[in-house]
Amino acid sequence: MSASAKEHLFALAGNPNCGKTTLFNAITGARQHVGNYPGITVEKKEGLCSLDGHTIRLVDLPGTYSLTAYSLEELVARDFLVHERPEVVINIVDASNLERNLYLTVQLLELGVPVVVALNMVDVAESRGVRIHCDELSRRLGVPVVPTVARRGEGKESLLKAAVQTSESGRKWEPLRLSYGADIDPTLQDMEQIIEEKGLLTDLYPARWTALKILEEDEQVLGKAREADPDLTQRLLSLAAKVITHIQKTLDSYPEAIIADHRYGYISGLMRQGIVEQRWRGDRLLWSDQIDRVLTNRFFGPLIMLAVLYGVYQITFTYSEIPVGWFEAAFSALGSWAESVLPEGPVRSLVISGIINGVGGVVGFVPLIFLMFLAIAFLEDTGYLARAAYMLDRVFRIFGLHGNSFMAFIISGGIAGGCAVPGVMATRTLRSSRERLATLLTAPFMNCGAKVPVLAMLIAAFFSENRAQVMFLLTLLAWIFALVLAKLLRSTILRGPSTPFLLELPPYRIPTFKGLMIHTWERIWQYVSKAGTTILAISVLLWALMAFPGLPEEKRAVFEKGRQEVVAGLPAEVRAPLLAGEDPASSDPAVIQAATALAELSRQEATEALKYSFAGRMGRALETFSRWCGFDWRTNVALVGGFAAKEVIISTLGTAYSLGQVEADQSLSLSQRLQQDPHWKPLTALAAMIFIMLYSPCFVTVTCIVKETGSWKWGLFSMAFNTTVAFVFATAVYQGGRLLGF
Amino acid sequence: MNWWTRGRGSCATVSRENGCGKLIPLSHARSGSRLKVRRIDGGRRLCARMAALGIYPGAELELVCAGCDCPCLVKVHGSTLSLGAGISRKILVSGPSN
Q1: Which of A153-167, A191-205, A280-294, B55-69 has the lowest mean pLDDT?
Q2: Which pLDDT value is given to residue B13?
Q3: Would you say residue A663 has pLDDT above 70?
Q4: Membrane-spanning residues where (chain A) (predicted)?
Q5: What is the residue range of B56's domain?
Q6: Cβ distance of A251 and B1 shorter than 8 Å
Q7: Are residues A210 and A242 in the same domain?
Q8: Number of H helices, E strands in chain B
């Protein structure tokens, strides 16, 4: 194989917020692939690029501050380096925060991987009057150092060239040997020697690294070592224990502190004389800090945050209205086309009701989700999101949640009208699995954009004098339920300490257009492809439940006979078009009357068919429970249908109340119908609204929960838990209301 | 490293080469002050995590916004960190270094 045909594998490593993703985007552009590392939610990004005939596969490792085993990100990064053995690790170092960024560099060097340092944001450092001498830094570190400005793509060519050169030079893994002082060094040396002799894990890690990790009691390395040689591991551990006790006794400290101290000592040694040149003093208060003075101010901060959130909400829902309309129009055009092309029968019904309407209902949300994600990507890339989490941590902590939970709640419909699907995905920013689970299980209680039209319809029917107040009350209730139930979960099945709040607030930056687009596109694509396949399957299933079994022959015959009776008295030439359901071309009052009567018959037949179908039977079977909260079988069918998507509740109620197809925007006629129905009272409506607000998330959300938690268990739990909660509260409201005489 | 010998109490007075400094938890320090990290209590894990973020015995930091229940903001090296009360209680600092 010639050298030019070979594919190089490089990895990008660096601290969070050092411009790693920006550089990755600048190098690979759109040629990237986002996936998950197997079994966990840490994103794995890969991209391809080429340079002078070399093909380079670049893997963006998760942002980490060090290489311990304390977080998933660090484990992922470490495992990738050890198992995949990239030829070169491009370590991005923020020039304006050199010392701390080099802490990771030192650990990479200690692991021994060939490193090329990208000294990023040299422009920011320059603007603060700081110049860093790359050549000297490179000489002292013993690795190439290339200055870059990731935002503008500056230096990426020379960076890749340096990386290719390093990989072509065939540099072996050469671990850097640091001294950790008189207390640790002798024992470490002994341990290293033993490991080297016995060949413990030497195929994976350098001996000194293994010794260091055993001293740090690193769970993962210990596990691997025990598997390879339990006796030897025990021996090494007892050696380590001696040092640990010694350090605790004489210095009242931990080995970690001493190791860190020596690493930073090594770094400050590196930086001494001639690396960093402070040419002039930049303003003590940088503009980022000045913005923070206002945006995180005790009084103005929360106010500004509310305004920002309101703005996001407004932008998303106002500007998505028109394109959402286009999508709906496109799908209904597609439906009409299918109707004209396909012959009548189950196939046509499947294609139109099952596939086009089901998938269209979800794909129709794409413009909304696009804008929502764009707004969030903007807030995230500017650095504002971290500030909002910081300000809200205090409130959410009371309920066992975390500052980062708030975005998931807001997106899910915290200001009525979001969507739980991106909301559930937004919980990725939460590190602790318990807090994350509590957040993603309670976020679907919020009033999403699909519940809003259903609630609005019921409000219009029964509480028309106080529409705004009732809607506001429902939004408030959603928050109360979500927070209180989160507290309940966190003090029962998800009990555990709350993670201390620890977050780096990145300096404010103006996001790059490219970065925003790539981030938004990634998420949109995930939504469309992953949810799209499941949606197709379940909407077909729900269609089948509502379409089968069809009415038995004798019942159909009764309706057919009724139709024949209606048209019996009419002239022969109008009979066929009338029976085919076409608009009567005649202005003859008898014909129009007959058409109305036929339509009424079709509606009754649809209701009858729905009652007879599996879904209808299910609805009737559920009446045993549902009468406690005042629902009859028709409401039950609608609620079962609402599991597909909450908007379906309106159309199913419409079918069930024999209105034929009811579109969401024609809901008033359904409102009137419900108002006149003796079964529906304001109390029933209130119980129904509470039930709809709280019961099982729609299946797209459930699939998302399954995907995000990595197990079906939590998906099923959210369905059962939320439905139970909904049932309990709807029953309480209905029975309580009846006792009070409503 | 002899200035963090002994003294588990949160407000112990320890002697160091150039004078005396009172150890207080970061959560009790005043806004706007420059402080020197003296010790990290609360286990090896926290100690390692803090070191990776640049907070280790000997590091200098600036308290931008003090705690009082909500997370405090500190500037260390070039970055701004927000630390919850659970953490800032365990970081022992001494007054302005001079």
Answers
A1: A280-294
A2: 35
A3: no
A4: 299-317, 354-379, 399-425, 437-463, 469-489, 527-548, 683-702, 714-734
A5: 14-94
A6: yes
A7: yes
A8: 2, 7
DSSP helix/strand/coil, A435: helix
Interface test with A, best of B8, B44, B87 (most A CBs within 10 A): B44
ipTM strictly over 0.85? no
Alpha-carbon gap: A90 to the closest alpha carbon of chain B (Å): 19
Contacts of B43 in chain A (CB under 8 A): 254
What is the per-residue pLDDT across A115-143, written as a single tens digit (0 to 9) for each?
999 999 888 888 888 889 999 999 999 99
Domain residues for the domain of A213 are 185-251
Cα separation, A107 vs A13, whole angstroms: 11
Q: Does B20 touch chain A (CB under 8 A)?
A: no
Residue B12 touches partner A, C-beta closer than 8 Å = no
How many residue contacts between A and B have a Cβ separation below 8 Å? 132
Assess whether A201 and A60 both reside in one domain. Answer: no
Tell whether A329 is covered by a domain.
no
- The number of domains in chain B is 1
Task: Answer whether residue A43 is part of any domain.
Answer: yes
In a domain, A547, yes or no: no
φ, ψ of residue B87 in degrees (nearest 5): -90, -45
**Contact residues, chain B, for A506 at CB < 8 Å:** 79
CATH of the domain at B18: 2.30.30.90
Quick one: pLDDT at residue A361? 65
Task: Compare all CA atoms of chain B with the CA of A218 and give the residue at the minimum distance.
Answer: B45
Displacement of CA A319 from its chain's centroid (Å): 22
For residue A187, pLDDT beyond 90: yes
For residue A232, give both structure tokens: 């030897």
Considering A168, A196, A217, which residue would you say is the last residue of a domain? A168
Cβ–Cβ gap B65/A296 under 8 Å: yes
Residue A181's closest chain B neighbor by CA? B1
Provide DSSP, A591-635.
HHHHHHHHHHHHHHHHHHHHHHSHHHHHHHHHHHHHGGGT--HHH
Contact predicate A246/A183, CB 8 Å: yes
Cβ separation of A68 and B56 shorter than 8 Å?
Answer: no
Task: Pick the range with the lowest mean pLDDT from A37-41, A178-182, A664-668.
Answer: A664-668
Using an 8 Å CB-CB cutoff, list chain A residues near B39. Answer: 253
pLDDT reported for residue B85: 83
What Å distances lie between residue A565 and A552, A559, A560, A590, A706, CA to CA? Answer: 20, 10, 9, 13, 54
- This prediction's pTM: 0.76
Least confident residue range of A331-335, A401-405, A646-650, B3-7: B3-7
- Whether residue A258 contacts residue A183, with contact meaning beta carbons closer than 8 Å, is answered with yes
Q: Mutate one of A100, A244, A276 to test the B interface: name it (highest B CB count within 10 A).
A: A100
**Last-in-domain residue among A134, A168, A202:** A168
